[in-house]
Design a protein that fits this description.
alpha+beta, 2 domains, elongated, two-stranded antiparallel sheet, single chain, four-stranded antiparallel sheet, Hypothetical upf0131 protein ytfp
Amino acid sequence: MITWYCWRWHIEQLFAILKQRGLDIVQPLYAFLGVWIINSLEHSKHLLNVFVYGTLKPGECNYADCAPWVVAATPAWTRGELYALPLGYPALTEGDRRVEGVLLQLRAAAALEQLDALEDYDPARSPAENEYERRYTPIFAPTGAALGRAWAYWMTRARIEAAGGQWLPSGYWSAVSKPASE
């Protein structure tokens, strides 16, 4: 840490000398660094984590909407309750049960905008106007080990009841297969 402060002091001294000689590079340097940082973040290895439990899982009908951005897909679960909606997709709501899904690691934040549109979620709208609410949610490995947090789409229990949702005690939904335990 001390070395960093020494380097900073030397750089500040260099900037001061250059400014005294009529060459102020601080503002252009800050502008360059700002652009460089923004570009680095856009093309960085930072991954966006999204927990999916329905049509966005690999093999389900909407997976193709996020597949171009998927770097990794890992079996995972979160706490809540899962309901099958008559419309052909599930909804996650508050609860203490295990809800099975997949943790998708996406390489672009732009993917989140596309997923938001698919899930009828717009952060600028009121919660009552959105079908789902996107929340940062604790996620766990099948073993129970914490994997951190990921974005997940949640629906209010009132909206689920109004849609005629059927509770899935297994915590698993698929349009193409049944859980291994059945």
